[in-house]
Structures are given as C-alpha cells and as structure tokens.
Specification:
CATH class of the largest domain: Alpha Beta
Order of helices and strands: HHEEHEEEEHEEEEEHEHEHEEH
InterPro entries: FBPase_C_dom (IPR044015), FBPase_class-1 (IPR000146), FBPase_N (IPR033391), FBPtase (IPR028343)
Structural class: alpha+beta
CATH architecture of the largest domain: 2-Layer Sandwich
Number of domains: 2
EC number: 3.1.3.11
Subcellular location: Cytoplasm
Helix content: 25-40%
Largest sheet: 8 strands, mixed
Number of strands: 15
CATH superfamily of the largest domain: Fructose-1,6-Bisphosphatase, subunit A, domain 1
Bound molecules: 1,6-di-O-phosphono-beta-D-fructofuranose, 1,6-di-O-phosphono-alpha-D-fructofuranose
Strand content: 15-25%
Binding site for substrate: 106-109, 197, 263
Cofactor: Mg(2+)
Radius of gyration: 19 Å
Distance between the termini: 45 Å
C-alpha cells in the first residue's frame, strides 16, 4: 500500500504544500496517540476557559490546538494560521506560501464518552512577501487548494483532497504511517439516510420542518421510501459516514439564532467539508447558495449547512 509521503510525492506538485500536509498529519498522529491514552493521561475534562465563540474548552481542545499551532508556526511554508480555538489569526513566516485554518478537535463533546472526534483543516495559497493579515483569510472556499480531516475513531483515518478527488488513508500504528486504503471515493446521488439534530426541529424554518417531516413519513409520505437517521454529534464523523456510504447532513439555521447562521463555522467546518463532498461528487449548500461561493466576512463566521448526496441536497433545497 502506498504511504502518505509516497502519495504526496506522486500527486502533489508543490513541495511546500507537501510539507504543510505532512506537518499537519504528523501532528495529528500525536493527537491520536494522546486520545488513545484517554483518562490515563489525565487530559480529559474541561480546561476552564472559553474560546472566542463563548464555548467552553476541553483540555484536549487546548492541547490539540497548541500541538498544531506550534508545529505549523515552525513550518517555513506556513504564512499564518487561523484556528477555531484562537481569537485572531497567528502570523508565521512572511515568505510562507500557505494559509491554514483548522478546527483542532471537532466534536469535543464526544471526548469524554470515548466517541468519534476529528481534526479538520483547510489550506489557501498566498503570494508576495509580507506578514499575513486576517483579510487574506477571507476568501471563498472555492479558492482552497487542499482540505481534509483526520478522524480519530476505532482506527485513525486521514481523508483529504487537493481538488482532484478524495482519498482515504488509515494509520498503521505498527509502522506509524498513513497508508492509502480508499481511492477516489464517491458519494452516491441518491440516499435513504439523513443526519440532523432533531431536538431543534421546532426552531427550524417551515420549509426545513416540511422536508424532514416528509423524510420521517418514509414510504407513507411523498418521498415513497423509508429513511434511517444517524447523528454522531461531530460533523467529522457524519461527513465520514456520508463519504463511506452516502447520506445527507444538515445543520440548518434556526430561530434561536437571530443571525440565521446556524452552528457550524464556515472556515473550519463548512468550507473544508464542502470541498471534500464536491470532490466526491456530492453537493454542499446553505439554504440559499453553494457553500464554496460564500465570501467570508469574518474568520469565525457561521453558516447553515446542507451537504451530501447530490439529488437529496437538490430535493431539500426545492422545499
Ligand atoms: P448492529 O450491531 O447490527 O449495527 O446493531 C446495533 C444496534 O442493535 C444497537 O447497538 C443500536 O442501538 C441500534 O442497533 C441502532 O439501530 P437503528 O438503526 O434503529 O438506529
Ligand atoms: P464541538 O466541537 O463544539 O462539540 O462542536 C461540534 C459541532 O460543531 C459539529 O461537529 C457537530 O455536527 C455539531 O457541533 C453537533 O451539534 P449538536 O450539539 O447540535 O449535536
């Protein structure tokens, strides 16, 4: 099986991009090792801080963030980083070619129950020779040059795209290497599986309520087929399931939120997952537009997300 470094040497022309991807994924191996120790390492539970979005940070959120931050700031190809756990962007090297945004540990409510979590990353190329500013990060997702995640589940998997299909690698813990295990994965256009947090149903738009009600009606309703539901409480787990066996994932805006943006972050969650899903033949939209076309207004901006099986996303949008 091809190792990640062999794959990158064969498929990624830029040695700087190879370097950033290798530094990111090497650090994810260390995060994976820390997660495997769990309670034994004394790193579970709360850190006692809040991030910029007012969410309480777990110790592992902070530890993973610091690991990625330190490794990426030391990497000469990195111009600057933006993290879900940092208030502002952090400049690295004025000649670095890449801007990287990341969610160091997505699904952190799953940490204490020993369930799936992941690291999500998104890369943009930059030019010139100057310190990075936040404005440089505010580019539509269609300009990403690479995006992916590392899923910490029963096995640790790396899934990424450089705009030419989606490939999956599994961490061989004996060799300490990511090995290519799933090539050019595709999301089927049709599905009978959906993922949405149903406890928010009463807060959704009338259209979203009507769409999900019709899914739940199954064969007895207008869709004429039965649907199953899954919810991992970590977008990285839900998207991984969709890449492996299809489905639609929705985190819509709801009436609790006056900005009508929903919960998910554009730069750390929606954009990288949209690039992966589109590269696997699926679709990724808010209720009004393609996610990858959104012009970001801030690095911590939130957006509604509807992604996965192309025909099911179209159907949802038709409501
Ligand atoms: P499998 O081992 O066949 O996947 O079944 C698991 C299970 O029996 C329970 O562990 C779980 O609670 C339930 O199925 C989930 O079923 P559903 O498909 O209705 O969500
Ligand atoms: P955390 O990393 O703060 O746990 O958030 C994860 C997440 O943003 C996303 O990965 C999940 O899909 C979503 O939250 C789950 O949210 P619910 O609390 O609505 O289940």
């Amino acid at each position: 099986m091809q190792s990640l470094s062999q794959f990158l040497a064969a498929h990624v022309a830029s040695s700087s991009l190879q370097e950033v991807l290798l530094v990111t994924t090497e650090t994810c191996k260390e995060i994976s090792a820390a997660l495997k120790k769990g309670s034994l390492a004394g790193i579970l539970g709360m850190a006692g801080n809040e991030n910029v979005q007012g969410e309480e940070q777990k110790k592992l959120d902070v530890i993973s963030n610091n690991m990625l931050k330190n490794a990426l700031l030391a990497c000469p190809s990195v111009r600057a980083i933006a993290s879900e756990e940092e208030d502002d962007i952090v400049p690295a090297h004025t000649t670095g070619e890449y801007l990287i945004s990341f969610d160091p540990l997505d699904g952190s409510s799953n940490i204490d129950i020993n369930s799936m979590v992941g690291t999500i990353f998104s890369l943009y190329r930059t030019t010139g020779d100057h310190p990075a500013t936040e404005v440089e990060f505010l580019r539509p997702g269609k300009e990403q040059v690479a995006a992916g995640y590392v899923l910490y589940g029963p096995s640790t998997m790396l899934v990424f795209t450089t705009g030419n299909g989606v490939n999956m690698f599994t961490l061989d813990i004996d060799q300490g290497e990511f090995l290519l295990t799933h090539e050019n994965v595709k999301v089927a256009a049709e599905t009978q599986e959906f993922a949405i947090n149903m406890s928010n149903q009463r807060f959704w738009s009338d259209a979203m309520q009507a769409y999900v009600s019709d899914l739940v009606l199954g064969k007895d309703g207008p869709r004429g087929k039965n649907y199953n539901m899954r919810w991992v409480a970590a977008m990285v787990g839900d998207v991984h399931r969709i890449l492996c066996r299809g489905g639609i994932f929705i985190y819509p805006w709801d009436k609790k939120d006056p900005t009508k943006a929903g919960k998910l972050r554009l730069m750390y969650e929606a954009n990288p997952m949209a690039m992966l899903i589109e590269n696997a033949g699926g679709k990724a939209f808010t209720h009004t537009q393609r996610i990858l076309d959104i012009q970001p207004e801030g690095i911590h901006q939130r957006v509604p997300v509807i992604l996965g099986a192309a025909n099911e996303v179209d159907k949802c949008l038709s409501y």
